[in-house]
Amino acid sequence: MLEDDLQLGKVIKASLELKKYAVVWERHPDEALKQFETGRFNVCLVDIGLPGMPGTDFVKQIRKSDYTTPILFMSANSSDKDKVYAFCAGGDDFLAKPFSTTELALRIYALLRRSGSGKEESHKPDLIAFGDFTFDYPNRLLCSPSGEKNLTRKEAEVLRMLALNMNNVVKRESVLTDVWGENDYFMGRSMDVYIARLRKKLREDQRVAIVNVHRMGFKLEVENKR
Asked: What percent of the chain has pLDDT over 70?
């Protein structure tokens, strides 16, 4: 659990331990990341309004390597925009403060029940984070601090191929064969249109770009934050 409020953290920890849950509680994102990297957790509770690093950024860090552990966001802000951004960041559920410990326990139980064998990592993740973006493949959404953008099916398929091979070249013919089903001149022109559309949607983060690699294909280049 990542919660900086001392009193609330104590209450949540005590109530969950009464229900026989083992609870690891951290108040600072950096320490929580260390705990997550060295341990195995069945569910994560994350407060959004944290000093230093927002809870959504913390979850994006987690989702770079873990795509299956259920994450429940807790927040004093419960607008639709806040909820959308929380889910786009990689959350599985959202609980508005104040809440009862009974409701929290029920939400945790539901997440654990739904995840079931969810510890098995799928071959390809559904959520991919890069730069300021989180790409929600099943819902065809490209989420960023400015909001969300809907993608067409082909845009989503192309972006997924590039994102799964981040900073590596994806052969042009591979994209055509996998997404369009054929590798010919006319399909290639169609693909170029979709690549141009994706470039426009990625334009708000200057560290992210789809680059043409001459006579080879495309590469989703993502610079690390400095």
From this structure: 95
Q: Can you give the pLDDT at residue 122?
A: 47
* Intervals of CATH 1.10.10.10 along the chain: 127-222
Domain 127-222, what fold? Answer: Arc Repressor Mutant, subunit A (1.10.10)
- Determine the Cα–Cα distance for residues 188 and 176; give it in Å rounded to an integer: 7
The answer to whether the beta carbons of residues 25 and 9 sit under 8 Å apart is yes
Residue 5 CA, chain-centre distance (Å), reads 25
Rg (CA), the chain: 20
Dihedral (CA of 139, 144, 147, 149) sign? negative
Are residues 195 and 175 in contact, defined by beta-carbon separation less than 8 angstroms? no
DSSP state of 149: E
d(CA 211, CA 219): 5
Instruction: Report yes or no: 144 and 133 within 8 Å, Cβ to Cβ.
Output: yes
